[in-house]
Design a protein that fits this description.
260 residues; alpha+beta; Porin; 16-stranded antiparallel beta barrel; 48% strand
């Protein structure tokens, strides 16, 4: 009887050890969520680089601890092109934790904006991202389990305020809600709300996101997008995804190339 008890205890111990190998520090999850990249979070093994192609073009690099150090996006550059910067075809966010700086450059590493200063809490989570020159600030809040639960973004004179809230189901992120308020004048205030609902399979791998968008610009509008993730590799990371708008001719397809 004692031998059986010992074997059971050893099996439980080994099982616990195996689980701990695939569970990341909460600070790593917080890092991906803070920079708006949760769907690219690794499942069981730290990802050094991932390249997203198809309907979206993005590159994400990390340091040996798995924290994001570079996010490159062509889609973000297109937003600047709409503003008149036609020569910018790629936007880079370079995150330097040792210098506590975040830098925004173009594809040729030409600095586009003043540097953003970063502050950290006692758990090495980003607590503040700020540019005094641009009068832009991001403030992060964490719960008693060290989980990111809120990010508040303000601009000069509070013309635009953005609030991101994160809801959890046990240890998994269940929903991320982003609300943006546009304070055009005392009489005119507009807003937009995006809710991302996350779903997982029996192996706790991300397999679906349902995105609900509500925008009040000239008139209220609603939009729902369903995104599916599949073709998992040996580490449980998805390598393909597609998004659809029900009853509409809309498709969004991406491929994910991963280096560990």
């Amino acid at each position: 009887m004692p031998r059986i008890t010992l074997i059971i205890c050893l099996l439980l111990l080994l099982s616990a050890c195996k689980r701990s190998e695939t569970q990341y520090p909460t600070s790593l999850i917080n890092n991906y969520v803070f920079f708006g990249a949760f769907e690219y979070m690794p499942h069981s093994k730290i990802i050094r680089e991932q390249t997203i192609t198809g309907s979206e073009h993005k590159i994400l690099n990390t340091n040996p601890d798995g924290l994001l150090t570079l996010i490159t996006s062509k889609e973000s550059a297109k937003l600047l092109q709409l503003g008149g910067d036609d020569n910018i075809d790629e936007l880079k966010m370079i995150i330097n934790y040792q210098a506590a700086k975040t830098i925004i450059t173009d594809g040729e590493n030409n600095k586009l904006l003043p540097e953003f200063n970063m502050q950290f809490d006692s758990n090495n989570n980003i607590s503040k991202l700020e540019s005094l020159n641009l009068l832009m600030t991001w403030l992060a809040s964490y719960d008693n389990k060290n989980r990111l639960i809120k990010v508040s973004h303000t601009t000069d004179s509070n013309f635009i305020t953005e609030t991101i809230t994160v809801d959890y189901d046990k240890q998994q992120i269940q929903k991320i809600t982003t609300k943006v308020d546009y304070n055009i004048s005392d009489q005119q205030k507009l807003y937009s709300i995006q809710e991302k609902q996350f779903y997982y399979d029996e192996k706790h791998r991300l397999n679906k996101i349902i995105i609900n968008n509500h925008r009040e610009i000239d008139q209220s509008s609603e939009q729902t997008i369903e995104c599916s993730f599949y073709d998992y590799n040996e580490n449980g990371d998805w390598t393909k995804s597609y998004c659809l708008i029900p009853n509409q001719k809309y498709t969004y397809f991406t491929l994910r190339e991963i280096t560990y």
